[in-house]
# Entry
Amino acid sequence: MTQLLKAIDISKSFGTLPVIRNVSLEISPGEVVGIAGQSGAGKSALTMLLTGFLTPDEGKLFFEGQQLRWPFNGRAHGIEVIHQHPDLAEDLDVSSNVFLGNEIGWSLGDDWLKFPNRRRMAKETVRILTQLGANLEDPHEIVANLSSEQRQLIAIARVMVNPSKLIIVDNPTLALSYSYQHKLLSLIESWQQQGIAVLINSDNPDHLLAVTDRIIVLRNGRCDNEFQTDDTNREEVVAAMVGTIDRQQLTPILWALDSYYRAREQAEKLSQRQAMLEKGLASGEMINRQFISQLANQIDALDQVNAALQNAQRRLLTELEQERKGLAREIHDQVIQDMLGVNYRLEEIESYDNLAPAVRSELSSLQDRIRTLVDDLRDICGNLRPPTIDSLGLGPAIGSYARDWTRRSGIPVTLDLDPELGRLPEAIELSIFRIVQEGLNNVHKHSGASESRVELRRTLPRTLMLSVSDNGQGVDGDFDLTMLPESGHYGLLGISERVVLLGGRLKLQNNEDGGLLLQVEIPHPRLEMPT
Amino acid sequence: MQLPAKLNNSLSLSSIVRFWRHLVQRREFAVLLLFLILCTLLSLLTDTFLTFDNLSNLARNFSWIAIIAFGQSMVIIIGGLDMSVGATMALAGLITAYCMDENIGLPVGVAVTSGLFVGVLVGWINGFMIARAKLPSYVVTLGTMSVVRGIAFSLTGGWPVRNLPENFRVIGQHEIQFGSWGIPVPFLLTVMTALVVGLLLDKMVLGRYVHTLNRGERALLLAGVNVNQVTTLVYTLCGLLAAFGGIVMTARLGVAAPTAASGYELDSIAAAVVGGTSLYGGEGSIVGVLLGGAVLQTVRNGLVLLGFPAYGHTVAVGAMILAVILLNYWRRKH
# Structure
């Protein structure tokens, strides 16, 4: 006989429930035999019977031509088992569990009088577990701390420490993830190449079809069908498992099986991907953080540049005002005085008696033109440097400018100035004055308004609020303050620049009752302004 | 050069600290502490405790308690109890004495061997029934205790065997001189037994199986370990050690009585449990049991020296067992 294992008419009942009924099977050396069956068909019971743990009610078992009597210790005969639920010694470490019952060491004769060589066992354990691709770094880890998959891997490793003739694999897919299931299948192939027979029982017919030579189908404890793997297909095996050949009943079962395993595989892939994504996210976050810190650095640099620019701008504006002031003074003190001197001289000449009437009238028209010229020059001076601002302050300066503006434009201005305004630093006063000036100019030029209003008051907390409003046509809805340079509104641009330099805010919006509201808020009062 | 030396120094210091911490966390350490406290108390309370004669006497009497406690602790580690050790001691002593009697007159070696064989036989019967029939150990061993004690009584009709040969009494009564110190032979035998059992239990594969058996029986089964054989072997060893203890005791007392060693099963359990063997199984060491036996015998000795009545001893042993069990329960709960 060349049979490695031969079981004859094995029957087993649990109480009154028959689990295995008259099952006979044979396994040749180096053969891979699969047991298929629905859960409850008796697959696990059969493997337990063949490994010697469970004693059948009837039947005989021969291994290598020698009859085995239950209960027997399969390992003593070269039968290794990977159980469905690996039972490990919880208090022992990984390597002790892998070598449990097979300890390496120096012996006093008997197996039990062995001094285990922990170092060698640990080394071997690491080698085997690496071969399995298990991520168990520490062979001295206590088994109680491990996951069920890691335990199953230890149970698989245990099978590999000892040379064996038959390895029985009892539905290990339950505790193993998809990749390890495949690892196990390739292990089974390598075992077969070493001449070891394998008996594998699995819920998944695909696994059986992948590695076995022969598939035995158990149904209700009976072994009804047997297929050569090369000559069969899933439909046939599944049909035998469920005991029907009716395609209408079979198709949904096949479909359900398919989708079950596919779903499980997908779920595992998903969770792996999720883990990878999480890892990716973590690294991405790190890059982001670096990026953000770089950005922050750049923003700091930009801020410095901006501050420098603002300082330059402030200096420019101050210088501009100083120059205007100087120019105004020069015109006022020199040119106007000279012209008034010329006019005075002309008056003197006019008082001469011997003048021809034509000359006299020419003289008086010259005097008129000089007076107009002086008035114009005074206007220019006033624009260059509001004459009252230095002596009387902002309020009167705005008042006099507004009256002047009404005279020129014909649009009445309502002034609402805070009487408690007091004196402000020169730069702020000038800036506010220029903003009013520019604002009113805009009203005159663009709005077509019939009246306007200027309001300047202290608001809480410690701010000055200036608003220039009119009842004109307002601005388009999509007016954008950030686009001022591109749209050519240099007046508004000037206002916004001054507001920024004062550390304030500019708001430009349409009034509820039509017209435009230009509102400026400036921190008040004593900003340290370079003068 | 300065820095590495310093580093090295601190390293060795930390390793000493780690070793110390490891030591302190062990149960044996607590038992040792208890033993030292007891000795200190007794030497303060009495004048007689710290005399060479008393200590030597204590060491002799402690020896057979410790020897049987080794076996008992192995049984407790696999989750059982052996109630028959006291009776086995008596029967083994009696058989040994009986074989050396004028009527039979076997040589000492043969007599001792047959005494030990009785222990092996009793232990094997215990183990066989417990392992194969899966019966509760204390019920089985209570049964064998009764049977063995009965055999001991019927063997001599209830009479003790006296007039033991001198070369047998050497085992229990002599001392071996190490310089000026005379070490009692039973004490030396105890230490040797402790070494052998300790090696078996802590260093060898069998010890692993014994420690794993209670909580990991199925794991051992699946690993192909013959659990029934391990169980049988443990009870057999317990019987053998009980017989050995009984022979040492008989040699010491110079008389083999069928009533001897009654109640010693409880003493052995107490020594094992006080020494840190868990009644829940799986835990226990020979050093602990040795210390436990020493504590037990010191308490007994102290009670005598302090003038308590002889019955007080049983109360003390029972109370110690209960106290340790309660302590263990409390430890588990927290």
Summary: The radius of gyration of chain B is 21 Å. Chain B touches chain A at residues 200, 203-206, 208-209, 211-212, 215-216, 218-226, 230, 233, 282 (CB under 8 Å). The beta strands of chain B are 175-178, 181-184. Residues 1-7 of chain B have pLDDT under 50 and may be disordered.
